[in-house]
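Retro notes - structure team

What went well: the batch runner handled both jobs without manual restarts.
What didn't: labels got mixed up in the shared folder, which is why I'm recording both outputs here explicitly, each with its sequence directly above its tokens.

Job 1
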Amino acid sequence: MTCALICADPYHPLSQALALRLGLQPRRADDPLNPSDSRVVILQTASVSPLRCDPGPRPLLEVAPWHLTLPEFRPDAARLRHAFLLSELSHHDDALTLERLLLWPYGKRSIAWLDDQELLNVIDAWIDDPWSGERCLEGPEAFDAGQMAAAISSALQNAISSAAGFAALKFETCDRDGDQLLDVEELRVTLLHAGVSASEVNWVLNELGKLDGIDAVQFSQGLGHALEEALAEQQASVQVVQLECPAAVSELLLQGWREEAAIALHQASPPTTTPDAPSGVIRCKGSTALATWLRSRVIDWIPVEILPALGVLSRRAGRTEGHPALLFTYRLSNGQVALIERTIDFRHVALRWRDGPDGGEEITWSQGDLVRSLTLMEQRIVAVRLRGHWAEFNRVEGLFIKGEPLPHWMVVLFRRSGRFQLEQEQPRGPADPICRCAHVSCGRLAELISQEPGPSLTSLARQTKATTVCGGCIPTIESWLAVGGPMPPGVDASTSPLNPPLGPSLQAPSIQPVVASSPRLLPIHDRPAEARAFLQQCYGEQHLHEVLSPRLSEVEDHLQRDGDYHHSYDELAYGARLAWRNSTRCLGRHLWEDLDVRDRRDLESEEQMFAAIVEHIQAATNGGQLLSTITVFKPDGRRIWNPQFCRYAGYRQPDGSVLGDPMQLELTEALLAMGWNPGVWTRFDLLPIVIQLPGRQPRYFELPPDLILEVSISHPRYSWFSDLDLRWYALPAVSNLAFDCGGIQYTAAPFNGFYMGTEIGASNLADIDRYNQLPLIAAKLGLDTSSERTLWRDQCVVELNVAVLHSFEQAGVRMADHHTLTRSFMDFAASEHQCGRRVQVEPRYVVPPISASLTPTYHADFDGSQILKPNFFLQPDPWLDCGGNATDGIEPEPSPVCPFHRGG
């Protein structure tokens, strides 16, 4: 028995709570029901118009607030009306938390508030044992505004009267699974929600990684005095603000009510808990007392956060620069106290130490209305003043709190550009977090932008809480609002007309890139020389010569001391784009500056890597409008076995033939030996992803259903083409090449571009040692195959390529034809020549396998004598190395490889 949950507003807190309770995904009215759905629950809310839905003869329960006007419902169905839910008090969180004000838009009525859990219990019981008719559920006792304020005041006083009691309540709130232990994920959520910077969160989690988790004692260990001071500043007394119409209606609108529902509430008569029940309606009362509910909920209205191992953070309302502001006091575990002021809109921010030293060097960068000022002592940030948003604020705050000295090159870069980093990694995939503090994904934000014409930052913040914690996501979300979605790859969200990019890439005559001796990955012989050459190119081409010298000095110090160094994100991103630009076998290099770079060097486990691979696929697929993307993992020799994220299995048959893709025969057999069981074998079974960490056995992970976008192949003129039952995946993401950059080798750095049609139509589906479909197509076309002189293969391969291009276009999937792409490549070569760079090309890889002489690359005279670094290099197949370490082997004969347009 399964139940379908249909929600008028799938993102309403009650919808989410019920979905979690039932383990279901909220659906919309137009989503089809499954044959196995034996029950249907329709959840109506005041935030949107009531649904009209007919689920057929299945048992039906409609749940709605008592004040909502609903259409007639099926006589044999059930309808559950409910009173105001206690969770609706959360709409007053900010006023209650920061100003101790209870905004009351419900008139002078007394309300018998209902605990949400009791409503969920009744729904749960109906699913197990359906009933029909109408029932009304209300709370056990009614409260007017004054009584509610008094009850909240009493609960607040009890919660702040004891530091130990407060810590216990806070721990209970964070312990989501109730096992008396905060695991890594629970602690991550707690810290990010409090606005702790990602770097500090990672530090705490790394420390926690040595333990199974932390218990209630460890949660506040060493923070007792700081917690007592913070709680002593809190007030408990709550004042009522009685809102009359139209102010009350406006408040309800801010809470997400529809205008009709808000007005109807204030016109309702009599002004009591619920209207008189019509004949036949069964009235029920809940049993949870308000005081009981408040004991667990009131902790959220006390603006004090316990940050394990870090300190105690409290906040209050105030003013700064003449504007309403939040004033934070951060009591660190070492006894220091940081004071942070920021206006509500994050446009004015100041950080300083309460007992900080006087003096220091003040560095101010300004452009238009933007002002960023840092005070440094011994290269450490001791004070910050900002006017205008800064995407790096979270990082700046972390550097200020931790007191880490800034590298000299970073100070120079700030003087020049007002930034510590030229480019911010941009969230794009539906699962990518755009606001980590409020747990808002790109998919959620994109949906809201598409639903609301001309949405504002305020309306998005009200619906999602995004931008309301640390404010670091404001520039990115503002850029989304400006363009109606994610910024294009390679464009920094903080870039504006006042803060433009630094200019075109030019090859300075003094820059001498490293030349590789082989297309295979070979050990680094002179890391300092390769690092120096790369940094000179990276900063030289971006006109940052004043940053180069201090950065070189720092890298040389690291290399002398540790034998290694770490790329900044800017260096990693520019290096990856250079590697694409330098790829001698790629036709799509004209798009090198658009590469989206995802830095995942912090990930450790196979599970974390696989989750990042799934996110890469989602972001790069982009609904068919493929985005060129690379994900870079830790450079410690870890490998992804698969040649590409998407590959079809090849199964050896008893007669020696292969079902599926013969190119994947070895990997398929290795996976079967590892225990993979695909069930019934077919020609197009997607292989799992195999990940191997250094010194460990490989592990495989099944790709989630519906993750991979596949295109069925049809022909615009021949209807029988669909009978061939051909298909191919949309995303060509190469995952077995090494990214070699500045003396550091990233052996797991998967990347994708988009397909050129001939890669599928003239290679994957046509080659005799692949899917070999040309003889079948010839038979369907009725061609004479008795002699090669009839050119039947040529006719068939053209029609197959017509079918591939047609099918991808019909499916809305980005794909290039070989004529357009070769012309774009020639434009790229000319542009590179203007920049003083000679394009290195292996001619046989830039001439298409069909119509070669009709394309401009066939007639061009290219030089392919050099392989420049950074670049992508071949690695041996890991399953061929019984020792599991595949980074030092040599592949005897390089196979054709184009990093961003690779056959397969």
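Job 2
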Amino acid sequence: MKKIFLWLWLVVFSTSIFANTLTLKSGWNLVGINGQLSLSQMQTQLGNDNLLVVQGDDKVYKKAYVDANQQALNDFTSLDVAKGYWLKLANAGTLTYTPISSTSNNFTMNLKAGWNLISAPTAMSLSEIKQQISSDNLLVIQGSKDTYQKYYVDMKKEFLNDFTGFSVGSGYWIKVKNDVALDFVFTVDKKALDNQSQESSSTIKIAGSEYTVKILSSTTPTQETSQGTLAIYGTINGISLNSIKLNDTYAIGTNFIIQIFNESGNKVAESERIRYSTNPINFGDIRFSTSSTSNNPSNIYLYGVNAFGDKLSFEEYKLASITDAEFNALTPQNQRIVANKLLSALFYGLHKEKLDEMINSGKFISTIKEKVNTPNSDVSKVEESIKKLSYDSWNKANSNRELILARLFYMDLGQAYINRLSSYILAQSILFSPASEVATADASDIATVYNSFVRYMDNGYSMQIMSYLYMMSDENWERFRSPEDNGREMLEIFLLDFDDSNVPKAAIALKDWRLDTTDRELIIGLNQNTVPQELFGTTVTNGFDFYREIVNNSNFTKAIATRLVNMYFSEFTSEQKNEIISSIVASNPTHFNDIILQIIFSKEFLYNSSRVKSIEETFYGISKRLSFYPSINYFYNMRSNMDSMNQSPLKYKLGRDKIIPTDTLSFANYYSFIRGDVLVNGKTNSIDEYDSGWQYAFMGKSVAGTDTLNGLLEHIFLSVVDRKPTTQEKEMLSDYIINKSRGYSNMDLDNNRYDTTIIVLEYLARLSEVYTYQKIK
């Protein structure tokens, strides 16, 4: 991916630009509104006790001042248009307001030299911002999660910038070199007129079809007719469009949008807003696939591949997912088994008291479903915190893997978390492994493959376009280095096509593609094949055709589903797996999460799977139930142990085996890590960052029902193996704890509780239930 620069010309569609509800989380929020709300209105909507702080660039409100009878120190009176604010809330809440866009068509924001705390009254892309402010004048934009710095651009480190544009409802710090005005236009919906007051349009022929080009404007010309003309020009799919003439009395600052319609009258593409500053106006290059015939984002094509697709809801899954009603009908023990199986498969876990609360609510399943579709609020915080941990400083490949493991531990369950989890699962598989064990692979491949997939998922890319981009990457060719090898593996991995007669044809299509083993980069030559090859029911000529037709093939989805089903249902028979695969394919998934979540939330998996858990499923599930604290170098240790148990993360050329290794040596290392580094590992020094282990919160006196030895035993068993101890286990452990050890009978003493917990967890570490998923009875 290092050598492929793909310009994605994405059409953005929206039913409404404007929002009149602002959602706030507990804690700090950097926000703004395109309207006005007084302090009293905010207090009415949020609650006097809930609104703790409002901090603008020069005015403040603090509830603490009110409580201390120092109201005179508060000078904030209202949220104003275009200004940014820090809001601190005790609990989450929402604000509703009337947007100015309902009464006005534009707004001008005056920025002073230096720092400005602002909010945008309507969305605006970074390119639009630069167009108005100028690249030299725009120094910094800092949101709550994303940043743009001119310094990064000047230092050729643009990849550090992740800000893409202003969003309504968010606040931003913006730094400019000189005073400048930023104009926001709410609607560009008027037909642009020529100098005779007629609608301006043109036609262009692309790939044998005729397309109509129309223009929308944000204003009307000051005069109906004009002597002169304003010219607007550019290219569409690389083909020059004859300049379109407009009335030249349009005011400087008018916004235009170029729209393209096919012969059926369907809009197939449109430009970003173009601001009129000089004549003629260059709208740049607009690209779209000639296969695209709809303005629905699910039908936006890139290089002939559907770039987005519609995400499935849980109700659209053909592999039936569990519902609240079905979960609530289970026995209490089976509820706990299913709940912890679901969370472990998500590399997640909950303290027993929190889990009990959610189960007893009757809405456990719907709560988790809602959670995985809710945006994360902790992405930036987690990224900053994991940078401070200690990783393998001698081996970049190791440290890249350790960073990913740490991220999955610290991030809360949510939409961004699921994207990072799915990216990890995919990069562990034969589909997209970075193959760090291969001599031609580079340490950076781990971060490149994984981070690219996270970005793709965060932006809603389809599994077809993600796979297509991967196939044309350095990292894919570092795994499979020759045209024959790469062609064969792509056919087998992504289409389950094991017909050897197709390999020479694939190699011909890829004949001028090769890996430069010195620089470890894919080189695509200029002497590409020109003789069409018959493959999987179509013809392909070059590598671009070959990869495109693989991801567009009807067997592509089945192959992806097969690879993932083999991972999650490794102990099922071939007949059972085929039924599951058929159900998944019948739901027509276009996103990897449509398959991964469909599997994890399925009754088939939650009720009937009984395979050995991966190290990640065991570690993340149990550690979070135990209120575990990882030391600053813990994930270095964990990665090293994973290598020893033959469950190395993102290492193997063909991905992790679908069967968890249980040979004597591999499982001995698996057991040793879970026992010694997780279960029999209590944190004894609360301020030592090198001291890892489960914390007092797991088994402290505040945990309900643990004031007796039997109560504590039940709490530990239910937390780790989803059941209470049997009578025999209870008698055996009680006898050892009270009579054969040191007489730990008084659970009011912290030392007794700690040592009792160690003894019980030592016993549980030996049970297969810790390492194996349980079927429900």
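One thing worth noting from job 2: The mean pLDDT is 89.
We'll revisit the folder naming next retro.
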